[in-house]
Amino acid sequence: MKNELIVATTNPHKLREIAQISKLPVTGRTSQVRENGKTFEANAIKKVKSLKLKPGQVGLADDSGLMVNCLNGAPGVRSARFANPPTAENLCRKLLRKMANCPQRGAKFICVIALAYPDGKIRTVKGTCYGRILREMRGKNGFGYDQLFRPCGYQQTFAEMPSKMKNWLSHRGRALKKLLAYF
Ligand code: IMP
């Protein structure tokens, strides 16, 4: 595949993960859109449509977030803005506070990726990773809620895993693998 992937993100962690998983040349681009859609799909499509693509370039945008069962799916599409300022530390601490009285710790990460071709065609794929929210932060890798999320079947949080392992089983990894089948 000769195309260059233009990714609508300024998040260096996401960009690195997308490059590692796709093994394609990727370029990050700022997207100025307001992520005010009600669904991950709506936000991903809005972001990817904002990219100005040249011939040979394919646009990619992901919208992702954490949905916690006992919080009725929150923080969901608001995951990036759940705490202010939205540092990993603040996001995790606020989540721990909100879940202080939750005995049931089930959660899932969702990632929707929208891919845009220069002819305007858009395709979306979704990746889900189920897991649990721990009662304390563990690990130093990753970003966002990684220190609290332990995927089903594993003893380590995303933040304790080597990046290859997280990429293999994460919501983003799963969505990207589906997408690569289209190239
Ligand atoms: P957005 O997709 O840029 O709207 O950001 C989604 C937010 O969800 C991020 O800022 C993180 O806080 C959180 N998030 C998404 N994916 C991950 C992940 O792989 N690990 C940890 N947090 C994530």
Automatic annotation (TrEMBL):
Transmembrane segments: none annotated. Keywords: Hydrolase, Magnesium, Metal-binding, Nucleotide metabolism, Nucleotide-binding. GO terms for cellular component: cytosol. It holds the Pfam family Ham1p_like. Substrate binds at T9, T10, N11, P12, H13, K14, S64, F143, G144, Y145, D146, K166, H171, R172. It comes from the Bacteria. The active site is at D63. One of its GO terms (molecular function) is ITP diphosphatase activity. Binds 1 Mg(2+) ion per subunit. InterPro entries: dITP/XTP_pyrophosphatase (IPR020922), ITPase-like_fam (IPR029001), RdgB/HAM1 (IPR002637). Homodimer. HAMAP family: Non_canon_purine_NTPase. This is dITP/XTP pyrophosphatase.
